[in-house]
Design brief:
Two copies of one chain form a homodimer. Chain A is α/β, with parallel strands linked by helices. The first copy, chain A, has two domains: 151 residues, Aspartate Aminotransferase, domain 1 (Alpha-Beta Complex), CATH 3.90.1150.10; 231 residues, Aspartate Aminotransferase, domain 2. Chain A has 13 helices and 13 strands. In chain A, the strands form three sheets. In chain A, strands 2-9-8-7-6-3-4-5 form an eight-stranded mixed beta sheet, with helices on both faces. In chain A, a hairpin with a 2-residue loop joins strand 4 and strand 5. In chain A, helix 12 packs across helix 13. The longest helix of chain A is centred in the C-terminal third of the chain and has 29 residues.
Chain lengths: 423, 423
């Protein structure tokens, strides 16, 4: 039925039917959670052999006793895994602790307080440092940026990545733009993988931007494919070499959603000059990361073949959940109500309601016992300009719970939409 | 022989004998290291059961799946261990990652940039924030402080801890003094354990200092006793309650020199108001620490009895090394050459040469293949005002190497002293 052409009576009847459905779901006192991109316990089980995997052997391939202090760049085999994941060289890849978010914060802090090439390159010395934020994006990137007092500018995204015309025009117009956040593969939450052209244009930004400009390339979902025949992400490191802009990019990855989510190891890669500059701060704040856990991780994932084989097991668990989400949405909704992404990897389905309805839908779901990520979370300052985006995270709940949660979400979307058309 | 009363001929002959000994040691092409307080591999072996200790059980005592994201304060059993180590309450104790140094940095950064109670309490807003630094002290505390641009003021130490008359007078004279670094038990490097009176006077500082003043109480050697019948450190938390100054103290500890040095877990404790304020920053920079490793640690060390039993094994390895150092120094040197501490715990012997000789001795040792901590390292800005302090770290080398390294150090001290008397 076409909502716009429906008679007031038909709409009223639809509204009543949906309200009854909603009230019936509410009366079930559900308590379900679709908020965060957490692996399910079934996925975590895949890596349980980590504990005990060393079998008493704590010395790494280079003869380092991983149990003792030291080694700011991490053990060489873990750095190799990071380099392979990111498509960089081991010499310019570090392996650090369990939180890639933490290392992104530290890189941002270093550039803000101390500067990538001395105090007069510090972002904090600029009149109004600004960071470009493709939206919707990852809320925790935005929290770091806001926390440092760096202004955030929204940039539109489509299925090929950020709108590069916008990005280039903004940078040319304002030399206080000091960086851009990117989740280049299966972008959080839209699932977009940046096209080759977008990757190349991002690599070229170092030629038009402030010399302290940095691309924060968070390749969080580098191997998190939901289909076997996935789209390759272009290698930004290679593209930077072609443009002579290697200093302008910091790459990050982790095994957080590969092994155990709270106990992964993380990686960062950039040029030797950038790493040396960063280590001046990092070396003040820590003696080094947990190298025993790095060794465990490379025992489980000694190379990319092993990593892909491991990720295939994740896919077997995750893909049916994404299929369920897409099937339910397809069966129950059409573009009068919402549009949504069909991700080939990553952890989210990004759904857009009609304008001005996301907050309402999320509040209604919450009342019915289904918690969704807060409205606006995937936007700087928590402000979704159209109030339409809802991030669905299907990984954590078991399939039966996921199905119930989706039915609640769908009824809320329908009811809120119909009420808006009626008003 | 009394150097000051010796004839020039006698001194010359002594100098020649010592030079010959030194040259002979030099010709052995030694390569020994007494620099850092690292556990030996024998000590690290004591905790090798950590890997595999979970036996497939990753759920903690509170039902938390340690493998997944979340839990900024850490798992409850690890927090309990931290509270027991520090003599505080579990509710106000957090367990975090592998580096207590890192968490000290983060607390300092938070107080500096954001303030313990809002921006106008930020240390960075003060004209000239200053930190009191009992010396000799821990070089990495000083690096953090210098890195943040906080001025450091030396405070004298004796066997009872910092000179509290100095501390109180400095604080009363300057409201820009925002904190003091303390290693209250087996202070690094002097080995001093603060007396009850000193602990009480430190707890009372909150009554005379700036309200953003913080004691950074780094109880790094809380259970690192070299004798069985060790001196108890007074409970600063209790003393603060008596003075109503609970907000003025942050306590830190870790298992770095209890289990595996690079893979320990760390603890911080303060008031709920302080923790809440700190979590506003910490929660932006990480989703949480490695909880699996926290669970492993409490499996190995479920309570203080188990911890003391474990530390007794460390003692059995460490005490003979310290005995060797003290015996060699006693046999070969007297106060004409040097004075040194006789620690009952911790990781160092702190030795004072005659004034103006530490740099020379350290350089001579290095030439003979024995690396010592850089001269001045235990002082702010790396400047030992008397150029006399040498930190000896006997834990890492095997006993036979330690003995050779000491013989080199002793000859260097003798030779440098005699040459100075002659000049």
């Amino acid at each position: 039925m076409s909502l716009n052409n429906a008679t007031p009576e038909a709409l009223k009847q639809l509204e009543q039917t949906l309200t009854a459905e909603y009230e019936s779901l509410k009366s079930q006192n559900l308590s379900l959670d679709l908020t965060r991109g957490k692996p399910s316990s079934e996925q975590l089980d895949l890596s349980d052999s980590l504990d005990g995997i060393l079998d008493g052997e704590f010395i790494d391939s280079a003869g380092v006793d991983t149990r003792n202090y030291g080694g700011l760049r991490g053990i060489i085999s873990a750095r190799q895994l990071g380099a392979d994941l990111l498509g960089t060289e081991v010499a310019q890849t570090m392996s650090v602790g369990n939180s890639s978010l933490n290392i992104m914060y530290m890189v941002m802090l270093n550039n803000y307080l101390y500067g990538c090439r001395g105090k007069d390159t510090a972002w904090g010395e600029l009149k109004a440092p600004k960071m470009l934020c493709p939206v919707p994006g990852y809320d925790r990137h935005f929290s770091i940026t806001e926390n440092l007092g760096i202004e955030m500018i929204n940039v539109d995204m489509d299925e090929n990545g950020p709108d590069m015309d916008q990005v280039e025009a903004l940078i040319k117009a304002d030399s206080d733009i000091i960086g851009i956040w990117c989740v280049p593969k299966y972008s959080n939450p839209s699932g977009a993988t940046y096209s080759d052209d977008v990757v190349d244009r991002i690599a070229a930004l170092g030629k038009i931007a402030n010399s302290s400009f940095r691309v924060m390339w968070d390749n969080a979902y580098a191997v998190h494919d939901l289909i076997e025949d996935f789209k390759q992400l272009a290698n930004i490191f290679e593209r930077c070499k072609a443009h002579g802009t290697e200093d302008s990019v910091w790459q990050f990855a982790s095994t957080s959603k590969v092994t155990h989510a709270g106990s992964g190891i993380s990686f960062l890669s950039s040029t030797e000059d950038n790493l040396k500059n960063f280590e001046k701060l990092l070396g003040v704040t820590t003696i080094g990361a947990d190298k025993v856990n790095q060794l465990r991780t490379v025992k489980l994932l000694p190379n990319m073949d092993a990593t892909y084989a491991h990720m295939a097991k994740h896919r077997a668990i995750l893909a049916p959940k994404f299929d369920l989400v897409l099937t339910e949405l397809n069966n129950e909704l059409d573009s009068q109500y919402a549009t949504w992404t069909k991700p080939e990897g990553g952890y989210f389905v990004s759904l857009d309601t009609q304008p001005n309805l996301a907050k309402t839908v999320i509040a209604m779901s919450s009342e019915a016992g289904v918690v969704l990520t807060g409205a606006g979370a995937p936007f700087p300052y928590g402000k979704d300009p159209k109030d339409c985006n809802i991030r669905i995270a299907p990984s954590f709940p078991p399939t039966n719970e996921l199905k119930v949660a989706l039915s609640v979400l769908i009824v809320c979307i329908k009811l809120a939409t119909v009420r808006q058309v009626m008003s």
